[in-house]
Amino acid sequence: LALEAELRAAITGTGLVLQYQPVVGPDGTILSAEALVRWHHPERGVIPPNDFLPVAQRSGLLRELDLWVLRTACAEAASWPEHRGRRPSVAVNLAGLLPGDADFLPVVDAIVTGSGLDWGHLVLELVETSLVALPPHALAAMAELVDRGVRFAVDDFGTGYSSLARLKDLPAQTVKVDRAFVTGVADDPAAFAVARAVVDMARAMGRTTVAEGVETAEQFHVLRGIGVDAYQGWLFSRPLPAPRLREVFAGGR
Ligand code: G
Ligand code: G
């Protein structure tokens, strides 16, 4: 209960910070960076999201947390420099602020407009379960944002229970292939087959793909052979504090 009160205070005050993990193209150009929240607790030190997201969920704070992350990430990304002549997008996870919310469109509109970020530089990541069976008003809100240039990504694709064929029903332009399939892709024929099937199917349905959790050059090589569009993982970069990310952009390497 104390933790809940402290989390509430952190969301409305200070204590939360964002790190950003680059997502790169096949040639290493940074296409986007995913905002990942951390809680700097005064006594416990840094608490990772896997430890405090359940607290946020139980306490009904998930929406407030999403609003803080979206506001902060858009404001920071609005002044990102170019990397190799191209301005990277920012990707934000949504778990408590959802397309089905009656005020989804006006809330996102107010935050993005207020931040000065171009609509075309925003990616919103949702897990599969947040994207199935959406009512018409939710689909309309998403379509309006897509018209403005926002892209939606299905996070952790393949970990849900729905069949791969359900991808055609998901309103998302990008599919993030879960780390579970990336891990074994270079040495486990079954993992390779699944990854290839997901990527082939995503392509056939007009979606771009991002491989999550790429740790080795072998995994990258195999995934590039399959035709994955973008890559995220420790091979390229750990999540970085905002000032470090700027240095990487400016370095242009
Ligand atoms: O950053 P890390 O790799 O520790 O993230 C662990 C989990 O927490 C991941 O599943 C990630 O999606 C989730 N997560 C990280 N940052 C955010 C955030 O800002 N909002 C939400 N809703 N989830 C996040
Ligand atoms: O579910 P989501 O994609 O948001 O998860 C991001 C989480 O994955 C974060 O906890 C991040 O630190 C972690 N992560 C990012 N890259 C790698 C990687 O290459 N290997 C592993 N094991 N974890 C990673």
TrEMBL record:
<feature type="domain" description="EAL">
    <location>
        <begin position="1"/>
        <end position="253"/>
    </location>
</feature>
<protein>
    <recommendedName>
        <fullName>GGDEF domain-containing protein</fullName>
    </recommendedName>
</protein>
